[in-house]
Design goal:
Blueprint: H1 20-33, H2 38-52, H3 83-88, H4 99-113, H5 124-127, H6 133-145, H7 152-165, H8 187-199
Length: about 200
């Protein structure tokens, strides 16, 4: 078994089913690190599914593989200063679209760029201990991915919790809080992170 990938900005893996092979790699990688709950792993996989269809070769759709935009499982932006720079210094000479290389990068990149939101004031270490699947997906989205929430993330969460661990999480209730806004105590840090994503 090997990573499945297609390098390109216009390619779509079907969400969920077609990416079962890659999800198994991601699950095993984080389990082998230790310190992650099942829910925290599913929360990351649901977000990866939303960002890149679990395709490590994915570029930001419509951007023609522009290095100033997102690449990879987590859609690192700008790619040139993140996953491309990391791959350039890989002692094994692996390409940026190598899934394992990307997961290794995530271990340093996620903690460095994690921002606790007012709605979900969890640190990265606290996130790793979450046991509620839907909560984990939300915390990861608002504190790492950031942006505009899409309800299909709940569908991905339910799917991967069932496929990978045999659990069926309940429908989330109450509804989501809003995205970070002027009242967010971490707004300044959030704006800096957004500018970094845009301009490097």
């Amino acid at each position: 078994m090997a990573w499945e990938y297609t390098v390109g900005a216009g390619y779509y893996y079907g969400h969920m089913g077609n990416s079962a092979n890659n999800s198994a790699y991601i699950k095993e990688f984080y389990e082998n690190q230790g310190g992650f709950t099942q829910a925290s792993i599913v929360g990351m996989i649901a977000n990866i599914d939303h960002e890149s269809y679990l395709n490590p070769g994915q570029g930001e759709h419509g951007k023609q593989m522009d290095n100033d935009y997102g690449y990879g499982l987590y859609m690192w932006t700008p790619a040139r200063t993140k996953i491309l720079a990391y791959a350039d210094h890989d002692p094994l000479g692996r390409p940026w679209y190598d899934g394992t290389l990307q997961l290794e990068f995530s271990l340093s990149n996620i903690p460095q760029t994690w921002i606790k939101s007012k709605a979900y004031p969890y640190s990265w270490e606290e996130y790793k201990q979450i046991t509620d699947y839907n909560l984990a997906t939300r915390v990861f989205f608002y504190n790492f991915e950031r942006g505009t929430w899409h309800d299909e993330l709940d569908t991905y969460t339910s799917y991967w919790a069932t496929v990978l661990y045999g659990d069926i999480p309940p429908v989330p209730d109450p509804p989501l809080p809003p995205s970070p806004d002027e009242e967010d105590e971490d707004l300044a840090a959030w704006i800096i992170m957004k500018l970094t994503k845009l301009f490097g």
